[in-house]
Write a structure and sequence with these properties.
heterodimer; A: about 100 residues; two-stranded antiparallel ribbon; B: about 400 residues; alpha/beta; FAD/NAD(P)-binding domain; 5-stranded parallel sheet; 7 helices
Chain lengths: ~100, ~400
């Protein structure tokens, strides 16, 4: 598995840059990843989504879908598109240190 | 007597009822199957109705014809599943069905009312669907007199039933309008929440090329927020607009409402199960099969079929307190109609994406994998006979439940 320097740490990632191990994640890493995909600095709105997603992942073992974030964390889908433009489901998972969301097809 | 209750007499429920009625000792077991609809629809056939290839009578038969002797069939809506009491409450006569084991096979249905503007005054006028019997027939009627314009196929969200069907629809539409002599007056567009034609890379590439060859436009990463029927546009959450004259929607799919009411489902009313053996993650005497389960694979009859084979083997062990030692691999096998009498075959599972090669089928095959051929089209047409006469009745098929790498070019 390839590794990558993120926020001064060597982190295992997959071919598309999603972190291999969610336990390697830290808030500094989230900021660095947000910078890379052009959504830095992270605001309160971002953190609400990231924290929900990480908690949900530890409960279910999967990165949440947009529908789930909207329903369970109360963040409207439109807002998710503003916070994480162009493919929010993937970007939320990336910044939250979760693997790439599994497509259902 | 031990009691097995099966909810839903669709593809998965019917197959399992047939298989288990032979495998279980009916002196010891009472099997009851519940459904609210008398008619069994051959759902893969809905795709062909809008283009006049199949008529309404080609896709319907009475459900009772496929329920084996010795299995009680109850026609009723389901009021509530009560896992803590091991019973199911029915609407009809307030009947209560106690169970030792429950199989949930209540499927998934399109919900056009979940998208603002979709299910309004233009429904079945300039906005159509083809995933329901009524929708497919209404669209057939509409297309007979449609004289061209912008036809947009939009997938609302994932997961949805039979993931290749929207592509097949648009391939067949291309063929149909050629045949009608109006292809030059028709713009074909696929607006999809996926990043391309399909999720799995090699199939996405092939299908993307075919779309391009047929001059079909793809709008990727398009997650619809609303329809504005007065302006004839669909609008994404990013405020991207796609104009249409005829919108063919694949509405949001959800599992049965009774699953949600009974606290058995996820956000879309699908039952969370172990993806290898279909046992509910919450209740050790409830299984979910077919589209009703939250398996990370295609919602399709072929998956239900392979899953049913694995399930019955495991179930016969589980009821005797033995470990379930058969593991489902997510096997799916789909014929994709590509128009002009040709088709493509794909065969894949949880881990192996659709690959090119040959698909061996004793006595009939081989079929070509991940490339167009006339043989694949005939495979698809032949499948309707197999479905009614072999598959639903739970008879042996010459395809293994586990995906095989034989013939595939890895």
């Amino acid at each position: 598995m390839p590794t990558k320097e993120i926020a001064g740490k060597t982190i295992e990632v997959d071919a598309e840059g999603f972190m291999a191990n969610p336990n390697d994640w830290s808030k500094d890493i989230a900021e660095a990843l947000a910078e890379e995909i052009g959504i830095a600095p992270l605001t309160e709105g971002h953190w609400k989504v990231i924290e929900f997603s990480r908690n949900d992942f530890s409960a279910t073992g999967e990165a949440p879908t947009l529908r789930r974030i909207t329903k369970q964390a109360g963040v409207p889908t439109k807002e998710l598109y503003k916070l994480f433009p162009k493919g929010p489901a993937k970007k939320v998972a990336l910044v939250s240190g979760l693997g790439k969301p599994t497509g259902c097809i | 007597m031990k009691k097995l209750v099966i909810l839903g007499a669709g593809t998965a429920g019917t197959m399992v009822a047939n298989k288990l009625s032979h495998m279980l000792d009916l002196n010891e077991w009472k099997i009851t199957i519940v459904d609210q609809d008398e008619t069994h629809y051959y759902q893969p056939g809905f795709l062909f109705i809008p283009f006049g290839i199949y008529g309404p009578n080609d896709v319907i038969k009475p459900k009772r014809d496929f329920i084996p002797a010795g299995v009680e069939m109850v026609m009723s809506e389901i009021e509530l599943i009560e896992p803590d009491k091991n019973q199911v409450k029915l609407v009809k006569d307030g009947r209560v069905l106690p169970y030792d084991f429950l199989i949930v096979a209540t499927g998934t249905t399109p919900r056009p009312d979940e998208t603002p503007g979709l299910h309004n005054g233009e429904w079945r006028k300039s906005i159509h669907d083809f995933y329901t019997f009524e929708g497919a027939n209404a669209l057939a009627k509409h297309l007979r007199t449609w004289d061209g314009g912008r036809l947009v196929v939009n997938i609302v969200d994932l997961p949805y039933k039979c993931p290749v069907a929207p592509l097949e629809f648009i391939f067949l539409a291309d063929w149909y309008f050629h045949k009608m002599g109006i292809r030059h007056k028709v713009d074909l567009t696929l607006a999809t929440p996926l990043p391309g034609a399909f999720t799995k890379p090699r199939a996405a590439k092939l299908l993307g090329n075919i779309l391009e060859e047929k001059n079909i436009k793809v709008v990727p990463d398009f997650l619809i927020e609303r329809v504005e029927p007065d302006k004839n546009v669909i609008v994404s959450y990013e405020e991207e607009e796609v104009p249409y004259d005829l919108l063919v929607t694949v509405p949001l799919n959800m599992g049965a409402d009774v699953i949600g009411r009974s606290g058995l489902g996820d956000d879309l009313n699908y039952v969370p199960v172990d993806k290898g053996n279909f046992l509910s993650t919450k209740h050790d005497n409830i299984f979910a099969l077919g589209d009703a389960a939250n398996l990370p694979t295609s919602k399709a009859g072929s998956v239900a079929h392979f899953a049913a084979e694995v399930f019955v083997e495991n179930f016969m062990r589980y009821i005797d307190g033995l470990e379930m030692n058969h593991e489902f691999d997510g096997h799916a096998n789909c014929y994709i109609e590509s128009g002009f009498g040709k088709g493509i075959l794909i065969d894949f599972n949880y881990d192996v994406e659709p690959l090119p090669g040959k698909f061996p089928l004793p006595g009939i095959g081989p079929f070509s994998l991940l490339q167009e051929s006339e043989m694949n089209h005939w495979g698809k047409m032949m499948f309707r006979w197999i479905y009614w006469n072999v598959l639903l009745k739970g008879k042996e098929m010459p395809i293994t439940a586990q995906m095989s790498m034989a013939g595939k070019w890895a």
